[in-house]
Amino acid sequence: MADRIFTWYCDTTSMEDLHGDLEELFNHDLEYMSVRRAKLKYWQRVASLLFSYAVKKRKQKAAHHHYAFTSFHPAMLKNYFLIGIRSLSKHRFFTIVNVLGLAVGMSISLLLIAFMSFLWRYDTFHVNKDRMYRVISVVTDKQRTDPLATAPVAVAQKLRDEYTGIDEVVRINSTLTAEASYKDKEIPLEGYYVDSNFLQVFTFPLLKGNIATVLSKPNSMIITEAAGVKMFNAEDPIGKVITMDEKDFEITGILKNVPKNSHMQFEVLASYQTLLQSSQANSTQSTDSWVDFRKSYIYLLLPAHHNTEAIEAYLNKVSAPIYAKEKNLRATFELQALNDIAPGRDLRYSIGPAWDYASLSIFIFLTILILLPACFNYANISISRALKRMKEIGLRKVMGGQRDQIFLQFIMETVIIAMIALVFAYYIFTLVRSEFLSMLADRVGMDLSTDFYTIAYFILFALFVGLVAGIIPALYFARLTPIQALKTKPVSKGFSGISFRKVLIVSQFALSLGFIMGVVVVLNQYRHSLNHDFGFDQENILDVELQSANPQILRNEFAKLVSVQSISMSSHIAGTGASESIWLKDLHVTDSTEVYQMFVDERYISNLNLSLLAGNNFTEDIAQNKKHAIVNEEFLKTFGIKDPAHAIGQSYVLPGGDEITVSGVVKNFHYMPLRYPIKSFFFRYDSSRFQYANIKMVTTDVFTSITEMESAWKMIAGEDKFTAQFFDDEIKATYAFYFVMVKMCGFLGLLAITISCLGLLGMVVFTVENRVKEVGIRKVMGASTTSIIVILSKDFMKLMSIAALIAIPLAYLFFDQVFVRMQYYHVPVGILEIVISLSLMFLLGLATIFSQTIRAARANPVDTLKCE
After folding, report:
1. Nearest to 297 by CA among 150, 133, 176
2. CA 64-69-70 angle, 5° bins
3. What span, in angstroms and rounded, lies between the C-alpha atoms of 101 and 763?
4. Domain ranges of the chain
5. How far is it, in rounded angstroms, from Cα 563 to Cα 705?
6. When comparing pLDDT for 44 and 146, which is higher?
7. Higher-scoring residue by pLDDT: 184, 153
């Protein structure tokens, strides 16, 4: 019988195929034949296999189209699903490892999907969104070129008066943010001054009021529904008068609450005519000003068929002669489509939430960096376990299974795992969603709640992950021939040679080490920033916002309190980033120099214990103080003065033309955060610019002292809320962004190390399973438990060491040469950070390895060898 079958096979098979098949079978099973089976049984096995193989080859071409069709038949898909469920249930441990690995990797991807799903719907509710544009400015001064979201008011006036072909021009000013008072109630409200045609251009539904007239008169205001309830409770706001920004406004309309997916976020809108009529606005918001870019935004509504390039060319042409007269300023203008604002270019002075392409690219890169290792883990473990499923695949091939059927079977299994992983990933997503929002600077304009579309994106994403993660093992298994599938290759011991598994483990642990180093380095920078010598005292100083209080009256009343040692006044809080600069001119030089300034009184320097190197402090003579300035050491270097004493009496010209004389020199101190170098700086005196009272306290009962201050405050400022914060807390708040970075690096590091350890766990378990009999034999031969642990673990430890050798120099270069240098005054990355990061990585990695190798080494050899 065997001879007849063999003869028939030879008649139906080419000599080349026959020679290859027999040689492969014979060479592989030669030892098996001579030791385990009789010759007859061996040839019966060969004949049976070749018979099935010949039948399959004969039918393959004729049945190709039929099988291709049935592979995608619903009944076949159901069959693939059932087989996949059974296979995954049979190998529970590896299923759990793969599900957890993919779930962890997918969790950050769900954050990205929800984020992008919401972001791409920004400003889509405006009816005329395709015809709306914002005028943006590209401003160049002596030091840098900045793209701004703002534009001078004169641009709007020029377009209205002289350019035809624009349907509407809308001016917006964002200075309307202040305490709003109505009767006895005061609450902070944020909003804009806008032109009367604002609601005709932007689609913000008006619930009450006439859209054509609500903003037509000066001192008219419309309020959102939520702000109206907050301000007036159950009363009807229409006709009510509130005081805000030192002006009285009549409520003429009620707006529907502003959607979160709007790049403008406001609670009230006031007539632009109000701003123009105020004396302060007439000097700073003149309609013919081309040099003031602050808080001014211009939007255009263009016709259906418009030419933005022509408008840009016109603006740049008419503005060129104006800026040619300016020594230190140049500006050009561009039109930015409404749909390109969020996400869009990185612009300074954004009117609302700013989502720029650079930040999004970093987010996408980090997401891919976490997701891909999770997908590769699945492929790695699946291919490593290929030997366990070789007979299954070979049998299916012999029975007529096609390549596409095998491919679909393994893709189906991966999709099932990805869908299960999606459930766990969604749970992680709900846990970290609120924390993720808290790390966003513009979290007010972001909503990560899920809706139908977001859930649909999640499911599509899980299907995509199933395809990506499963395509490598599916292709690997589908390409196997029956001969390759049914022959029993010896199990590879250890990790000999360079393989995909090695590269994956090394790259994963290198990435994990990088994130761990990120957490350690950021924490060290934060500690250094708080302990840095700022050049002034911070302890026991309470900064009180003056608001409308008179500085002198406050000084007199608070000085009566026992807990108050001294009081000074200032326009800014030193060391927190609140500062301003002007262009100062030397009398002997035609060019101007940028100098930072702060307005303080005569007690400020002594109150903060600043060092006066030469000259005198401000005096009680207010008129004389306004003519003098106290400069820092860097000021001397900028203007070429070698000795502090030589600076006393030197005069300089302010932007308005007034002269100011140096009366003193202080030692350099950090008036700005440590991110910036100390530059030319001076103190000036102007009581009208004072914003804070700096109160040095001497008390053991802080709560009682502040309560006393609140009582005194009510006598001074009436209904204004007492707002105060300790100086050292304000300094800490300045560097709170480090905590955000620690959270971010910590979260990403946790994901990366979890995926790495899960992948490593799967590989260790698989290796131990395949070497269990080797371990039993070694124990019988007298090997100790320690030596077996070393044998099973050394290959993995080598890979972790290689990962460390690769990651340490790369991470060091990034953190020491790039990251920490974003802060001018920083501490370099040292050996301690590297040692701590390495220790954490090896601790987690070795714990994963030893959790399996110790158990295998302690196993009784009788149990592992009894099946032989």
Report:
1. 150
2. 100
3. 13
4. 2-69, 71-122+356-489, 129-340, 500-533+728-868, 541-727
5. 6
6. 146
7. 153
Q: Which regions of 669-769 does DSSP assign to beta strands (E)?
A: 681-684, 692-697, 724-726
Rg, the chain, Cα only: 37
HSE-CB for 612 with a 13 A CA cutoff: 20
Going by pLDDT thresholds of 50, 70 and 90, the confidence category of residue 819 is confident
Residue 29 pLDDT > 60, yes or no?
no
- Write the pLDDT tens digit of every residue in 680-712: 999 999 988 899 999 999 988 888 999 999 989
Q: Is the pLDDT of residue 386 over 80?
A: no
Give the DSSP per-residue string, 301-354.
E--SS--HHHHHHHHHHHHHHHHHT-SS-EEEEEEEEGGGTSSB---BT-SS--
C-alpha span between 280 and 799 (Å, rounded): 69
Average pLDDT, rounded, for the chain: 81
Give buried/exposed letters for 318-346 (b at 16+ CB in 10 A, else e): bbeeebeeeeeeebbbbbbbbbebbbbbe
Report in angstroms the alpha-carbon separations of 200 from 167, 174, 805: 11, 19, 63
The kind and range of the H/E element at 593 are: strand 592-599
Contact 708, 563 (CB under 8 A): yes
Average pLDDT on 497-504 reads: 66
The answer to whether 626 touches 686, Cβ cutoff 8 Å, is yes
Q: What is the 3-state secondary structure (H, E, C) of 221-261?
A: EEEEHHHHHHHHCCCCCCCCEEEECCEEEEEEEEECCCCCC
CA distance 573 to 579: 8
**C-alpha to C-alpha distance for 255 and 227, rounded to whole angstroms:** 10
Write down the pTM of the prediction.
Answer: 0.69
For the stretch 727-770, pLDDT in tens is: 999 888 888 878 777 777 788 888 888 888 887 887 787 777 77
* Residue 47: partners with Cβ closer than 8 Å, 6 or more residues away: 1, 2, 5, 6, 9
- Any idea which residue has 């010896």 for tokens? 490
Q: How confident is the model at residue 401 (pLDDT cuts 50, 70, 90)?
A: low
